[in-house]
Design goal:
- This protein is mainly beta.
- The chain has one domain: Tick-borne Encephalitis virus Glycoprotein, domain 1.
- Strands 1-3-4-5-6 form a 5-stranded mixed β-sheet, with no helix packed on it.
- Strand 5 and strand 6 form a beta hairpin.
- The protein is elongated and about 50 Å long.
- It starts with a strand and ends with a strand.
């Protein structure tokens, strides 16, 4: 079951503004100030009731260098975040830790992947349920 997290202070009302925006007629900004959010794998985030919805949908890749190994390249973690507004459709955003895109604009909100944890260790398997992402949401001015 997905855990619901309400963060009512993050935004006023949802807005339109880009071709990838919500299919609902809402006014105002989805995010009015920069904010950082943390999502566990499978979590849903609801901002201001049902205005802005986010979910940590998938870990598409985790080739990051284990912390107990010396690697030539740091590797990359690629995750899929679902985002939507109001009752509109959910859009999939794919974000990376080391490759582009690390940030994606959606409906005048810049969504940046800050961190994926836990960091791999060579002899410790990571299950999907172990993953946590830290994201920054910023209004596009």
């Amino acid at each position: 079951m997905r855990k619901m997290i309400c963060v009512a202070a993050l935004a006023a009302l949802a807005g339109c503004g880009s071709s990838t925006g919500p299919d609902v007629d809402l006014e105002g900004a989805l995010v009015t100030v920069p904010v950082e959010v943390t999502l566990r794998f499978g979590d849903d985030l609801v901002v201001d009731g049902t205005v802005l919805r986010m979910s940590f949908a998938a870990v598409l890749e985790d080739s990051r260098c284990p912390s107990d190994v010396t690697c030539v390249w740091e590797g990359n973690a690629k995750v899929e975040i679902g985002i939507g507004a109001g009752t509109g459709p959910t859009h999939a955003l794919q974000l990376n830790t080391s490759l582009d895109p690390r940030a994606v604009e959606w409906n005048d909100v810049l969504v940046t992947l800050l961190e994926v944890t836990p960091h791999p260790v060579s002899d410790v398997p990571i299950t999907d349920a172990d993953y946590v992402v830290k994201l920054r949401l910023e209004p596009m001015l």
